[in-house]
Amino acid sequence: MSMNNHLSDKQIQHLYWRVGFGISAIDLKKVRTLSKNQITDRLFTESKSSSTLSIFDKVLEKRPANLSPQERKQLSQLRRKKMNELNVLWFQQLIDTRQTLREKMTLFFHDHFAVRIKMPRANVHLNNIIRKHALGNFGDMLLEVSKSPAMLTFLNNRQNRKNHPNENFAREIMELFTLGRDNIYTETDIKEAARAFTGWNFDKNGTFIFRIKQHDYGSKTVLGKTGNFKGEDIIKILLEEKQTAKYITQKLYTYLVNPIINQNHVEQLSKIFYDSNYNLKTLIRSIIKSDWFYNDENIGAKIKSPIELLIGLSRSFEIKYNDPKTVLYLQKKLNQMLFFPPNVAGWPGGKTWIDNSTLMLRLKLPSILLNGGVIPLIDQKKTENMMAKEQLYKKIKSKVEKKVKTTSNWNIFLSTLGSIDETELTKFILQPELSSTAKRVMAAIDITDTKSFVIGLLSLPEYQLC
Question: Final residue of a domain: which of 213, 240, 267?
Answer without folding.
Answer: 240
